[in-house]
Design brief:
- The chain is an alpha/beta fold.
- The protein has one domain: 3-Layer(aba) Sandwich (Rossmann fold), CATH 3.40.50.1820.
- It is 42% helix and 18% strand.
- The chain has 13 helices and 8 strands.
- Strands 1-2-4-3-5-6-7-8 form an 8-stranded mixed beta sheet, with helices on both faces.
- α5 runs antiparallel to α6, α5 runs antiparallel to α8 and α6 crosses α7.
- The radius of gyration is 17 Å and the shape is globular.
- The termini are far apart.
Length: 287
């Protein structure tokens, strides 16, 4: 019998804090590990996600960094602004967050939407970004089939957040479809059942609209302007884009390192935290 996977078990023995702060007028939820005297690392989840995407990474990274995993603007338990969310809105919130914690510079690591936001931040605010990790990052292309699947599963999960509907959305992220992911499902159910979250998800899904997505996409000019040392991390079974797309992104960023993790989907930091933590920390620490 497979062992039950619990986020609380992942965090047992980890010195971490859950809390809220106000960034640019936005009440923002975070998970935090590590000491304030260490370099700052911010972990950014994907579309429709939340800080728990990084529960298996806080301990390892907290040893070396003042590590923050946040619920991004409009997501999780962070405030919902009540309008369609484009990449610039997330960047503005992230910069306000960094100012609030008094971080002049930070390393940014983003998965999916989080990678899109992190890359845009590195383009628009090069003085702020130390090192950059793009983990199965979005923002480089518009695939109508993938976009439609994300919208369909996401809206179904919030409009009727049964275990089955939320599990289908979680399993989209994972290479291993045999697991039930009960604890992740229960956590996300609680988030999706918040009053007003159906409207919030519609705002989150704005970037799956072809016209809105087109004006937010990153191309050779944007990727080529990134000056931060960059790791592009991809997976063998990413459901949103294949390995050649990850390699293409890396080829546009000057000096970028490219790594592929096998047997993982869209959440390699969760599916194979041992490998992810090693690759991630080797890069972030300049090893």
């Amino acid at each position: 019998m497979a062992e039950f996977e619990s986020m609380w078990s992942d965090l047992q023995g980890v010195a971490f804090e859950q809390g809220y702060l106000t960034a640019g007028g936005v009440r923002t939820r975070y998970l935090r590990a590590g000491d304030a005297g260490k370099p700052v690392l911010v972990l950014l989840h994907g579309s429709g996600g939340h800080a728990e995407a990084y529960v298996r990474n806080l301990a390892a990274h907290g040893e070396h960094f003042w590590t923050w995993a946040i619920d991004m603007l409009g997501h999780g338990y962070t405030d919902k602004p009540g309008h369609p969310l484009e990449v610039g809105h997330y960047v503005e919130h992230l910069i306000a967050f960094l100012r609030t914690i008094d971080a002049a510079r930070a390393s940014l690591s983003g998965e999916s939407l989080g990678g899109w936001v992190a890359a845009r931040t590195a383009v628009d605010h090069p003085d702020v970004v130390d090192r950059l990790v793009l983990n199965t990052a979005g923002g480089s292309k518009a695939d109508p089939e993938v976009m439609a699947r994300i919208v369909t599963l996401s809206m179904a999960a919030v409009e009727n957040p049964t275990r089955e509907a939320v599990r289908a959305r979680i399993k989209l992220l994972m290479a291993d479809k045999s697991k039930d992911y009960d604890d992740l499902v229960a956590s996300r159910q609680r988030i999706y059942r918040q009053p007003g979250f159906v409207a919030a998800m519609r705002d989150i899904m704005a970037l799956q609209d072809p016209e809105i997505r087109a004006r937010n996409l990153l191309g050779p000019a944007e990727y080529g302007a990134i000056t931060a040392a960059t790791l592009v991390l991809w997976t063998s079974d990413d459901p949103t884009a294949d390995v050649p797309e990850g390699r293409r992104i890396a080829s546009m960023i000057p000096g970028a390192r490219f790594e592929v993790m096998s047997g993982c989907g869209h959440w390699p930091q969760y599916e194979d935290p041992k490998t992810f933590n090693r690759l991630h920390l080797d890069f972030l620490l300049g090893r």
